[in-house]
Amino acid sequence: MMAEPGQRPVYTCAEWEIDLARRELRLSGELVPLGGRAFEILAELVQAQGQLVTKNDLTERVWRGVFVEESALRVHIAAIRRALGADRDMLSTTIGRGYRLLGSWGIRHMDPPLQYAATELPRSVNIPSASFDLIGRTTAIAHLWRLLSAYRVVSLIGPGGIGKTALALEAARTPPPGFEADRLLVELASLSDPRLVCSAIASVLGTKLEGEEISPDSIARAIGSRPLLLILDNCEHVIDAVAQVAELVVSHCAGTIIVATSREALRIEGEHVYRVPPLGVPPETWHEPAGASAYSAVELFTSRAKALGSSFAPDEENIGAIAAICRRLDGIPLAIEFAAARAVMLSPPKIAALLDDRFKFLTTGRRTALPRQQTLRATLDWSYDLLPDDEAWLLRQLGIFAGEFQLDAVIAVAGEGGGDVTGQLARLVAKSLVLADIRGDSPHYRLLDTTRAYALEKLHAGGEYPDAARRQAKYYSGFFAGAEADSEVKPQAEWLAIYGRHIDNVRTSLDWAFSSSGDSQVGAALTAAAVPLWVQLSLLAECRERSELALARLDPMAANAPRLRMQLSAARGWSLMYGVGRAREAGPAWATTLQLAEQLGDRDYLLRALWGLCIDQFNNGEFRRALDFANRFAEVVADSSSPVDRMMADRLLATTLHYRGDQRLAYHHVGRTLSRLSDLAAKPQVIRFRFDLRVSARYFQARILWLLGLADQALSVVDHNVEEGRTSGHALTFCSVLGQGACPITFLAGDLDAAERYCTMLLEHTERHPIRLWNVWARAFRGMLISRRGDLATGLPLLRKALELAGEARFLPRFLLLLGELAACLGDAGEVSQGLATADEALARCEARDEGWYVAELWRIKGELLLLPGGRRSPDGAGQAFDRAFEVARSQGALFWELRTAISVARLRMSEGHPADARHVLAAACGKFTEGFGIADFRNARAMMAKLGS
Predict the structure, then answer these.
(1) pLDDT at residue 710 in the model
(2) Cys-Cys with 305: which of 343, 849, 855, 950 at CB 3.0–4.6 Å?
């Protein structure tokens, strides 16, 4: 027997009844609790009369066009089976297809057609109308409704001001199609007594209990099977009473679903916790004002500010300041609204500058808001005042942490007598005062920036800050003690995941240690321990400043003073050498390191010092002395069993010989270096010698191969090296990959597009990382590229300006190519005398320093300049310069310079009417090449030969 369309029969099978009119499942006349969505699924199955109903059909009919995950359907199927109890097998699954309800189901009687309640009785709704648009919550609202289709209780959890109430109310205002239920809001914020919770709910329900005690039971009876969305708002201060009512209602009222807003979960059966996320904020590296509206936090600020009458221009400065404000306020909507209210009188940059005193500054909430939401301080006071003494004490201690922290750090900062720190921390997480990241093996925690500022203020006010700061500094000294050793056994990404996230805590500990109330000896120890962190993150300036301060404040009488001075001197030398370049102070720093390493018998730091002194000699133009230090390094490691030590000896010798101009012997040593790469672990070796040894060996290999005329091999190494450098994750190493290898080699190959691409890559990289010298070099290189493309009016001033900015650093080997090209560009611009002066100055520098790798090219450039119209034009002088270039190139085995010189000589011979001589010179040079036939100079030489004929 089938029901007529529109009728709602009662289906029966043995003792079971499914009443479609009253939406009830009964067993022997007793109501069996079942959620609304689960009942709708059961109704679809019973009406199918034992036929299979597919999963797609069920979701389409029950959710009426709202997309839901298949897991939501499985949740309700499981609920039906629990309700059926011993008869759970009546609900049969056909794997991968759908479900059917088994049994002999009959229709006991037919109820008259029941009109939808919405057409007879208006639904009861007390949700207030929105007074403003809710920004940035469209996705969250849709997600909340999906949760409500799967769970009877959803708790919206988060810190004060995150927008829990706004999200719940907006969701209630915009139910999905087909949702037919009362929607009622119960506001609990004003209750001072948990015993009043039941009365508040009963009042909203409009229930008259006629003398019956108002209790969770009486509320559940009053609701009955009534379809109801019940919002219980601001539960945290009466959480136990709310949990008791909610649990009883959902177990007895099949048509009721509950949304609770609170700073902690109800912790009842069937509850799903949704932690309301902050609004989207631009990342630190964001520099695109035009795309500001893509971030909901920025959109909220600008929208609220304009609504209040602010008229700031949406320019780069203002939008950048708004982005910074939103980041500082952690994307918390209430705090952002407070800040936006100040935009009526102050510019966004001024607001950003005043956020350090945010509790006095952010005090302009809406007059109609709850008292605890009218100032930022009041919002946090509400949460803090609800804490037991032990949790309030721990929250204050946590204010010492400037970034992420682990449980061990919390226990250390709490000190002895801290009580059950683990339990206290867990409860602070549950109350949304501490954020937890439980991914990975070791959970990490952090405070929102505003919460941290509040806790730190309380810590200072209670006089607890000095002890907490001392315990924190000592903890991180111990924590980083194993960092350098870990770098030898852990891949860089894993190492940074362990140590990199703690840099802000290191900074605050050092700030305290070197303050007037701090402990400089603790600070010196922490500085030395944290050096690997600055190295891995390529924070050169910070490493230099911190190490110099620690050295200045180090107690010379302390037992560990010599070792600390050795470690800090090495850190200072490294940061000066790579951060400043030709720094006069770097050499003495390395000399001190060497002296102390010899005194302490520390072989590791002895090698570091020799390495540093060798590089320092490069930077200061003492290539003969550099070779002495490289040879001494090789002598020390001659009997070493470490492949890294032997590899570094060859690496030093290859680099020194390359710069001196002995490319054949340099090739021998770089080959030995590369042959030992297989002995290295797969991870980068950054910490000890301050850059990735594997990657750095490759870019010097590419340079040597190029000069030897092995162009195809060199370009192949460059391609691989760039990718390897990019994935290494070490910022300083990647600078050298691009600046020492990719940029100059592609430029010399004549591939200006590739050179420009790599230059842009280097510029962007050095803008993300504070590595000034490479940024200056990249700007000079860009100016040179623009000039070489023919736009001398634009490119030449850029090149000159960047070289001026480099100061004494322009004497570093990496700038020599740029100086030579500057001389050539000056000649092209008609400034021949200045070009010749620049070339002569560079040649004199190379002669004095024994820096031979670029000398052949400088002689060739000088010869070309002497052929240009001007007061010093001299074809004979040019010929002599070309002869000198040939002599140097051939003595070094530098086929590339020889080819370039041959092209210049051939042009001169052709201009003098000697085509046979020109062709002979070109043929002799080209004949030595075994590869690289596609590079620009080789193609040019071939074209000239073809033009000259046989």
Answers:
(1) 97
(2) 343
| Tens-digit pLDDT profile for residues 330-368 | 898 988 888 888 888 888 999 888 887 766 665 555 544
- What's the pLDDT score for residue 209? 55
Q: What is the pLDDT of residue 640?
A: 83
Element at 731 (helix H, strand E)? helix 731-736
Helix (H) or strand (E) holding 183: strand 182-187
Q: What is the secondary structure of 607-660 as a DSSP string?
A: HHHHHHHHHHHHHTT-HHHHHHHHHHHHHHTTT---HHHHHHHHHHHHHHHHHH
C-alpha to C-alpha distance for 387 and 600, rounded to whole angstroms = 53
Residue type at 881 in one-letter notation = A
Rounded distance, CA 722 to CA 698, Å?
10
- C-beta atoms surrounding 290 within 10 Å: 9
pLDDT tens string 871-896: 688 999 999 999 999 999 999 999 99
Percent of the chain with pLDDT over 70: 91
Cα separation, 83 vs 27, in Å, equals 10
Q: Are 624 and 708 in contact (CB under 8 A)?
A: no
Contact status, residue 56 vs residue 44, Cβ threshold 8 Å: no
Q: State the DSSP string of 111-154.
A: PPP---HHHHSPPPB-PPPPSS---S-HHHHHHHHHHHHH-SEE
- Is residue 331 within 8 A of residue 297, CB to CB? The reply is yes
Contact 884, 859 (CB under 8 A): yes
pLDDT tens-digit readout, 583-603: 678 889 999 999 999 999 999
Buried b (16+ CB within 10 A) or exposed e, 18-51: bbbebbbbbbeeebbbbbbbbbbbbbbbbbbeee
Q: How far apart are CA 312 and CA 344, in angstroms?
A: 9
Q: What is the pTM of this model?
A: 0.68
**Local structure of 273: helix, strand or coil:** strand
Cα–Cα dist 862/859, whole Å: 5
Three-class secondary structure of residue 512 per DSSP: helix
Reference 80, options 98, 63, 92; nearest CA is 92
E strands in 748-901: none
Q: 872 with 836: CB under 8 angstroms?
A: yes
The first and second tokens of residue 351, run together, are: 């607001």
Which tokens belong to 94?
Answer: 């056909």
The two structure tokens encoding residue 288: 């695109």
Average pLDDT value for the chain: 87
- Host H or E run for residue 444: strand 444-446
168 CB-contact burial (10 Å; exposed 0-12 / middle 13-18 / buried 19+): buried
The CA angle 474-476-480, to the nearest 5 degrees, is 125
How, if at all, do strands 24-27 and 16-19 pair?
antiparallel
Q: What is the pLDDT of residues 433-476, one digit of tens each?
A: 898 887 777 889 999 888 898 899 999 999 999 999 999 999 99
> What are the C-alpha distances in Å from 459 to residues 325, 412, 498, 930?
24, 16, 28, 73
Which position has the token pair 């109890």? 85
Locus of tokens 């299979």 = 52
What distance in Å separates the CA atoms of residue 104 and residue 85, rounded to the nearest whole number?
18
Instruction: Look up tokens 């605050």; give the residue.
Output: 508
| pLDDT for residue 259 is more than 70 | yes
Tell me the pLDDT tens digit for each residue of 738-750.
999 999 999 999 9
Q: What is the mean pLDDT of residues 288-302?
A: 83
Residue/partner pairs of 916-923 with CB below 8 Å, 24 or more apart: 916/948, 918/944, 918/948, 919/944, 919/945, 919/948, 919/949, 922/948
Which pair of tokens denotes residue 775? 């940024």
Helix (H, G, I), strand (E, B) or coil at 699: helix
Distance of CA 219 to the CA centre of its chain: 50
In terms of pLDDT, which residue wins out, 642 or 220? 220
